[in-house]
Amino acid sequence: MKTYGRFPLTLVRGAGSRVWDDQGKEYLDCVAGIATCTLGHAHPAMVQAVTQQMSTLAHVSNLYYIPQQGDLATWLIENSCADKAFFCNSGAEANEGAIKLARKYGHTRLGIENPVIITAKASFHGRTLAAVTATGQPKYHKNFAPLVPGFAYAAYNDIAALESTIAELEQDGPQVAAIMLEPLQGEGGVNPGDRAYFQRVREICDAKKILLIMDEVQVGMGRSGKIWGHQTLGVEPDVFTSAKGLGGGVPIGALLTKDYCAVLEPGDHASTFGGNPFVCAVSLAVCRTIEQEHLLANVQARGEQLRAGLAAVAAKYPNVIDHVRGWGLINGAVIREDAEMTAIEVVKRAMNDGLLLVPAGPKVVRFVPPLVITAAEIDEAVEKFDRALAGG
Ligand SMILES: *Cc1c(COP(=O)(O)O)cnc(C)c1O
């Protein structure tokens, strides 16, 4: 339906952090299907899990207990602050679940008739109607009115803005059921959350008994250098969501919550495909491989190497690159506002030179490679980024 503005590139094969197009040209993949191919391409552990589970039992529906879903839930709970998991198929769908949970929590626990969820400006939470309303960027709302009621927006990393938004909403009594934030804003420009801000948000939520929901769809599953972005911030959410890297390339999303706010009961929420044996077996293989191959250590080391390399390139082009920011293997080179260069131009030049990158807004070039990327490949990415900037 022409919903995508696509690059003129057809990829047909991949291995590790490399992909090849239909002409046989090789690319170093620092996009990873938009922060999704956690283990790169054609990882043997995924191939094995896909083959084994597909040849055994792929889908049965949630009318029946699914052992692979139980095993994946157990892994996620043992590796996070959550007590309960619900599985769906995408990030937007996971956030829809979080929004429904927060509304029910608002009605049943806080006695609020029209609960409001506060999100951040420049945030991104997905494209379904409620998720796109939660997304604090007007460009995604255009032509889709009427939007879903019950959302308000406050500037990210700005406690005064959050406090005044709450005060305005609650002039006549409690209104706010939840605050929903990305630990690091991905689509909004690879903008990391501020520790002091998040700690204060946690205190506000505790004091008001409202939910802190964290959208870990892009930054979770090891990309930050810890399994979850909120661990990098030193703050525990009440509810958080995952997708993208969770399946390593198969479609899966998850809504995770603490016991005390797991208010959804039988009949409240469902998904036909959600958590089927196939996706859960593959996702579990991704989780176990992160542990077995010590990928968090690789993310931390390769992330430091990448940021140092990009900063050195940035210093060569002070009129183009303002600064480099990010965590682990989610990093952005921020182009100066007054530079003519746009992120998409840099991405196109890099693509010609065999490096895949993705913009995060008009002025940020995003690097989100597979978590298995090697030191030599990071050096190669930095070199090609340097050449892309030199090329104009
Ligand atoms: C990509 C993304 C989403 C939406 O995920 P889909 O799987 O495309 O629905 C939601 N939140 C964040 C933070 C994302 O990066």
Describe this structure in words.
The chain is of the alpha/beta class and 392 residues long. The chain has two domains: 11-30 and 294-390, Aspartate Aminotransferase, domain 1 (Alpha-Beta Complex); 46-292, Type I PLP-dependent aspartate aminotransferase-like (Major domain) (Aspartate Aminotransferase, domain 2, 3-Layer(aba) Sandwich). Helices cover 38% and strands 18% of the residues. The protein has a seven-stranded mixed β-sheet, sandwiched between helices. It has a four-stranded mixed β-sheet with strand order 1-2-3-15. Helix 11 crosses helix 12 (375-390). The relative contact order is 0.16. The structure holds pyridoxal-5'-phosphate. Pyridoxal-5'-phosphate binds at residues 90-92, 95, 124-126, 182, 186-187, 215, 217-218, 243-244. Pathway: Amino-acid biosynthesis; L-arginine biosynthesis; N(2)-acetyl-L-ornithine from L-glutamate: step 4/4.
Which features does this protein show?
392 residues, alpha/beta, Aspartate Aminotransferase, domain 1, Aspartate Aminotransferase, domain 2, 2 domains, 7-stranded mixed beta sheet, 4-stranded mixed beta sheet, 12 helices, binds pyridoxal-5'-phosphate
CATH superfamily (homologous) name of the largest domain = Type I PLP-dependent aspartate aminotransferase-like (Major domain)
Give the total of beta strands: 17
What is the 3D form? globular
Trace the largest sheet across and list its strands. 4-12-11-10-7-5-6
GO cellular component, one term: cytoplasm
Pathway: Amino-acid biosynthesis; L-arginine biosynthesis; N(2)-acetyl-L-ornithine from L-glutamate: step 4/4
Binding site for pyridoxal 5'-phosphate: 91-92, 124, 215-218, 272
Catalytic activity: N(2)-acetyl-L-ornithine + 2-oxoglutarate = N-acetyl-L-glutamate 5-semialdehyde + L-glutamate
